[in-house]
Design brief:
about 25% helix, four-stranded antiparallel sheet, single chain, alpha/beta, about 500 residues
């Protein structure tokens, strides 16, 4: 029998007292996969010097580092709002993306005509918002004001809002607004003026717009991920093919076991990106070329005037908390908390069209109480050789909530009970420490099967138990092999009920 305690070495003979504490995770019930949100986003032009990743717990930290009004800031203020932080302890990390060489800003020139006939309050709507963090873009037009005076008031209203995405200047009596950062993501900036029912003789018009240009590379930002398991990525750079291709190449593929799905690494991610398109045809052009990919998930905000990179931030803040606490559940029915909403959402308003949209690899939404409501959250995966009703890597919930949680829980048990242990045969009666046998490991996995069914991640624990096989390598005594099958649980998304109604004839 081996010594019960080795606090004092077995070779000691002189009088001595020893006491030790040995930490052990033996018997632990594996928890849920910890979620971690990575944000790929650009800084303002004035803040390009900072290139290192930044973990943040409030939007102010991001504004100071990467510039207020930048894409990084706009995402941060949705993930970590001033009030009602939904994410709690879930880590959020900005990975800054440098501007492309030769990139340009978006510039909008607003013309003003007429002479004010009375005192009124007008309001600028900048990229779908008439305020940021409680500070409004309102300005007061006074009697007899003309273009020069009103232009100055307009640019003062925008420049007074720290988080505004633009800087205003007056040029030849016009109000000119320039995005604070350079590149193609800035071209979504738009400006209108809400006269709030009384124009007072003033007309506002967009006289000119020069779209920002230049697609940045995300390679340097992705390289900073290292060994960290960033489960959810908010892609605030854009839906251009270069960016989406880079994410797919980096994350790899479960079928081919590449990238982050490589078995000895297995720390995959889902990359959320936004879109404002509202037709099936336009969505098809975005997703159909990616039918065999399981990395990118389109987060729709059909018809929005907001920046489309705000949509994935809204989805991330909703789904990360679900995946952290109740990974067996879906995001169905969740409302975007902070997204400019359009009245006309095009094909998304039609249930039949939404069904087609899902089948071509796009998530869907509908309108509920003037907010976008998530109906389906899916990756672009929709291969032609898999049934549309049972596509393996379509649902984000199936990947993040189920598959990756099973892997995490399995790995925790593997680290505690199997890695580095001495392998015994199943009939061994040895009581030596740090040993494992196929039979003992199989018993541990039986417990995992029961846990997974109890947590509603798998449909049938017994199905998993019946499939478990464990063996010592046939040509390598240091090899320990395991295989098992699971049946994922589903989500009651499609409910079909028939009520056969008839009259009662005759009798009492």
């Amino acid at each position: 029998m081996s010594a019960l305690s080795t606090a004092v070495g077995l070779d000691r003979v002189s009088a001595i007292v020893g006491y030790e504490i040995k930490a052990s995770l033996a018997g632990i019930k594996a928890g849920n996969l910890p979620q971690r949100i990575a944000v790929l986003a650009e800084a303002n032009t004035a803040n390009q010097a900072i290139t290192d990743k930044l973990s943040f717990t409030n939007a102010k930290e991001v504004g100071v580092a990467f510039g207020y009004g930048s894409p990084a800031y706009h995402v941060a203020r949705i993930l970590r709002p001033i009030s009602g932080d939904l994410l709690g302890g879930i880590p959020t990390v900005i990975y800054p993306v440098a501007e492309a060489a030769g990139a340009t800003a978006t510039v909008i020139t607003m013309g003003i005509t007429g002479t004010a006939t009375k005192n009124v309050t007008h309001k600028i709507v900048l990229s779908g918002r008439d305020q940021i963090d409680g500070t409004s873009y309102s300005f007061v037009v006074e009697t007899d004001d003309e273009a020069a005076e009103i232009s100055q008031k307009m640019i003062d209203a925008v420049n007074a809002v720290l988080g505004a995405p633009a800087i205003g200047t007056v040029v030849a009596d016009d109000a000119v607004f320039t995005s604070k950062w350079l590149g193609i993501s800035s071209k979504e900036m738009n400006i209108t003026v809400d006269v709030q029912g009384d124009a007072a003789g003033i007309t506002y018009s967009e006289d000119a717009k020069v779209d920002g240009a230049g697609a940045p590379s995300i390679a340097t930002a992705l390289a900073q991920f290292g060994d960290e398991w960033n489960t959810i990525v908010v892609n605030a750079v854009g839906s251009d093919s270069t960016t989406l291709d880079a994410l797919e190449a980096y994350n790899g593929d479960a079928n081919t076991r590449t990238g982050r799905y490589e078995p000895t690494l297995f720390k995959p991610l889902v990359a959320l990106f936004g879109s404002s398109v509202s037709t099936l045809a336009a969505l098809t052009s975005l997703t159909d070329a990616r039918k065999n990919e399981m990395t990118n998930a389109l987060c729709p905000a059909p018809g929005t005037l907001g920046f489309t990179f705000e949509a994935p931030a809204n989805v991330a803040v909703l789904y990360a908390k679900i995946a952290q606490d109740t990974p067996q559940t879906d995001s169905l029915g969740q409302l975007y908390p902070d997204m400019p909403t359009a009245e006309d959402i095009g094909d998304f308003a039609d249930t039949s069209k939404r069904d087609q949209i899902v089948k071509i690899g796009s998530s869907t939404v509908k309108i509920n109480s003037s907010q976008y409501e998530i109906v389906d959250l899916v990756t672009t995966y929709h291969p032609v050789d898999e049934p549309a009703t049972a596509t393996l890597f379509r649902w984000v919930r199936d990947l993040v909530g189920v598959d990756w949680n099973i892997k995490y829980k399995y790995t925790l048990l593997e680290n505690i009970n199997a890695i580095g242990k001495t392998i015994l045969n199943d009939s061994s009666l040895s009581t030596a420490a740090d040993t494992i046998s196929p039979k003992r490991w199989k018993g541990i996995l039986f417990g995992l099967a029961d846990q997974l069914e109890d947590e509603a991640l798998i449909f049938d624990a017994q199905f998993m138990k019946d499939s478990i096989e464990v063996q010592i390598g046939e040509s390598n005594p240091n090899r320990f092999e395991t295989v098992f099958d699971v049946q994922r649980t589903g989500t009651s998304r499609v409910l079909s009920t028939t009520n056969n109604t008839q009259f009662k004839f005759g009798g009492n």
